[in-house]
Design a protein that fits this description.
354 residues; alpha+beta; Beta-lactamase; 5-stranded antiparallel sheet; 3-stranded antiparallel sheet; 45% helix; globular; binds 6-diazenyl-5-OXO-L-norleucine; hydrolase; Glutaminase
Amino acid sequence: SSPLFLSRLSSFDHVDWQSILNDIATDIQPYLAKGKVASYIPALANVDPHQFGIAFTDIRGNTYKAGPSADTPFSIQSISKVFALVMALDLEGEALWKKVGREPSGGRFNSIVQLESEQGRPRNPFINAGAIAVTNSIQQHYCSGSDSNNKEDDKKLYTRQYTHKTSPDEYNSIAINKILDFLKTCAQTDQDIRIDPEVARSEALFGDRNRALAYFMRSYGVVQGDIGQTLHTYFHQCALEMSVTTLSKAGLFLAAAGQNPLAEDDGAMLVTSHDHVDRVNSLMMLCGHYDMSGDFAFRVGLAGKSGVGGGILAVVPDVGTLAVWSPRLNKAGNSYAGTLALEWFSGRTGVNLF
Ligand code: DON
């Protein structure tokens, strides 16, 4: 296996990561009251808002963490879109870009307006429409046997949904299990990542906007097959749950040129190509925080992806991966304290890419 790129990490050998994280966890306290917890589903609205955790895993595999909630599992929500994108890129290669673009949307994460003027092709893989297209691609790959463009099947699907008889058991879970397994392999854990069934149920119950996006895209032929199945997978993917400590490990390959320094076989295990990692990181930098992506890049200077559960994953190429969690959100749906903590981390350590 090719060598890890340790030289950039060595240039930070003077930095005491642990004491910087400790200071941030202390200094952030007065800011934990700022912002509002996501309220679109009860499962998220009921989370204790006054929580904070931050973790950093370097590309040698050392993890540092601080804050009382560093080991508390939370709903990673849209951060899952990063891992799904890596999977879809590996499965589909360049063809994926026919379905989804690479431009910031400048709009809210669940907006539908651009889809109409842009032939149903979402601006990027991190707005909901784009993420649903990515999940559709994974779905099509693993479950093509159960998928169909057959109108009879579609009729059955509509009947199922309109009569509200749909039970989650009617869907197959191959694709969502592949996504779950991918995250577990990345983080090298079996226990620390799960799908919260209550969040998944809530997503489905209050998921009409996402359904609208998905069916609208299918009317343009951008997504194909059983859309109910794709949405089922998407709703469960949003309900993935883990702590910042685990998340910083799961995303480590994004800082390690696609390799997994946590894997035990000789050398590092290859998660994906260096090329895919560079592209995913670029997209995170430009589109990872919706219509506040510019603000995040300006303040933090790192590739990052937020989730409406209050988590953020940030990548310092060739150095390490950061994860932060605090449930209260700013107006674009990104963690208020989490963004501030990353801004401080970047400023205090000098890891800002620019
Ligand atoms: O799809 C949805 O609407 C939710 N699962 C929210 C996804 C999300 O995290 C958007 N981000 N900040």
